[in-house]
Amino acid sequence: MNFTLTEEQEMIKQAAKDFAHAELLPGIIERDEKQQFPSEQVKKMGELGFMGMMVDPEYGGSGLDTLSYVLTMEELSKIDASSSVIVSVNNSLVCYGLESFGSEEQKEKYLKKLASGEIIGAFCLSEPEAGSDATSQKTTAIDKGDHYVLNGTKNWITNGNSASVYLVIAQTHIEKGYKGINALIVEKGMPGFEIGPKENKLGIRGSDTHSLIFNDVKIPKENRIGEDGFGFKFAMKTLAGGRIGIAAQALGIAAGAYELAKNYSKERRAFGTEIANHQAIAFKLADMHTQIEAARYLVYKAAWDKDQGNNYDISGAMAKLYASQVAMETTVEAVQIFGGNGFVKEYHVERMMRDAKITQIYEGTSEIQKIVISRNILKN
Q: Is residue 346 flagged as an active site residue?
């Protein structure tokens, strides 16, 4: 067991940390309040190679391992979870899905631009009646020979208005159930494709989340990913890796809130001494640190499994389940340590508490992770 990062990984971690402090921290409160998408920051992240970290350089990516990606997600999320989820979706869901299962033509046409950050993508699975139950797709893609006709609505889509490329999961053969689902590449601006209003969210407010409406959108057959009926497997395989990215995001939120709380506890005085000297606060910090370290090694283990070619269904689910729980608990305690100041936006921890909650919900709720874990452990 070797827990030492390579020199390259240390450099990537430091580069992400420096970028987060220099580019993401300034203006973050205003972006949160105004629900402002970080366009300039995303462009710079593309230039640094953060938008296609695991993609082969042949397709414009950085060619890095999953652990390097996780380290980057953690550092970005310590400062700005809205920006890190944009990175996560583009890397874990869109780029990974296209590189792993797309045709050579699809990779040339879409993946290169996505991996370089020239454009960003969105992953479109959830619907009003198909969130955790992904088999219940009501969006349809009717086979018309050389094309599909796409109709339906997708909900809660990250990068909903900012993306140029959308991977849309839709039902083609209703009689086949989940085996009749396809994954289609949809381009922004296709006739009949409309973007709904931005959702007014509790957290990650800098990330643009929209509903998408498809009215008789004509999708060429060459835009289908994989064989006919591969869509559900595509979604599940892609989400398995996406969980690792969100687990890293949760880890970063927790670690960021802990660092702020620890530093504050060394400055804030009460009853004649810094509050860090009071056992009630010191013990909170001890619990936070221990839980974050445990979450960190679960997340790193899931990334390692993926890099080794091991099955990472259970390790990814455990990492996301626990890291998101730690993010929620840690941010709540951070607000408590800050006291009244924790309720004020300028100290950041209230935003981090709001941001933490979504990590227990998207890319598979905590309850779904428990289903994945329990099914795997009960097989043996």
A: no
